[in-house]
Design a protein that fits this description.
Blueprint (H helix, E strand, L loop, with lengths): L10 E3 L12 H10 L4 E6 L8 H10 L3 E7 L1
Parallel strand pairs: 1-2, 2-3
Length: 74
């Protein structure tokens, strides 16, 4: 993962973007968050890691211009 400059970012928990979707993939939530103008996201473990690797999630976030803001272990 690239070293990101220290600056203010706009982040949210990805579950906030589930509204109206039936069983969305984590990549769908990442796309919605990026489309809403966020530049960072909070992930939940293990929920958001189901069927994903950490490297795959990092790539999905960076492909959409998002940084990882936080990781909550549930």
């Amino acid at each position: 993962m690239p070293n990101l400059p220290n600056r203010a970012r706009y982040a949210a928990r990805l579950n906030a973007f589930r509204l109206g979707l039936d069983d969305p993939a984590i990549t769908d939530l990442i796309a919605r968050a990026a489309g809403a103008g966020l530049d960072a996201a909070d992930l939940n473990y293990p929920d958001h890691f189901s069927g994903q690797t950490a490297a795959g999630l990092a790539l999905a976030l960076s492909d959409r211009g998002l940084a990882l803001n936080g990781l909550a272990v549930r």
